[in-house]
Amino acid sequence: MKNRNTLIHSIVVIAAILLSSCSTGEAPVKELAPSKAETKEIAALDSTPVAVKQALGIDVSHFQGAVDWDEIKANNITFAYTKATQGATYIDSKFHQNWSEMAAANIARGAYHFYSTESDGNTQAEHFINTIKEVKAGEMPPVLDLEQGSIKGTIAMNQFHLEVLSWLTIVEAKLGVKPIIYTNNPFANQYLINEKFADYSLWIAEYGVAEAKTPLTWKDKGWSIWQRTERGNIEGEIGNVDHDITNVALHTLQIK
């Protein structure tokens, strides 16, 4: 196994790609020299200690193309999420391949749904459940991705909260495990001010900082997973992937 510094240097390359979970359309990959901000981001990651209790992971979608999950596993990645669905009808074109190959590589796998206000929470929950079918012991809890791209047009805040809570409640009831909420600080502090959301573990996205800030709703609970860079490359995959770290021992998040 590589030590932590070697791992971080091996995963960061001079490339940039739109965050994969924000769109279902393809985005071109541009080869760029690292900016000053990206250089600082790399330095921040290199100086951030990884405690023994923490685990390293990645999240992917069709943007990454074919992934060699055995190589991913060999690079000390112990958990991974793949995009499953978006809205009421979309299924990520690489979901089924990633889902089966993650299991074969003995990586703790999880699936996420990108929420859209274009359809109700009930319909989206059923779409997600019908796609992933079931979850098993040792896997990661399902994730609901809530961010700026989720809001289409205008929607009353209380209605948005009811629809999101409907998704969370239905998925928990049907799959038997409480989902995780993925979001970022700007979105959470504008759209997720509701104490009921704090009942769900938080996966926070924040890049280029030494420590992630916690949104107001989760201020007393903190985050469980931190997506700390959206630009990185490791052996075994083609496109850039998001890199994640847990705040607790991995087994405490895995489905029992």
UniProtKB/TrEMBL annotation:
It comes from Acidiluteibacter ferrifornacis. Belongs to the glycosyl hydrolase 25 family. PANTHER family: LYSOZYME. One of its GO terms (molecular function) is lysozyme activity. GO terms for biological process: carbohydrate catabolic process; cell wall macromolecule catabolic process; peptidoglycan catabolic process. The keyword Hydrolase applies. CDD domains: GH25_YegX-like. Residues 1-25 form the signal peptide. Keywords: Glycosidase, Hydrolase, Signal. InterPro entries: GH, Glyco_hydro_25, Glyco_hydro_fam25_subgr. Transmembrane segments: none annotated. This is Glycoside hydrolase family 25 protein.
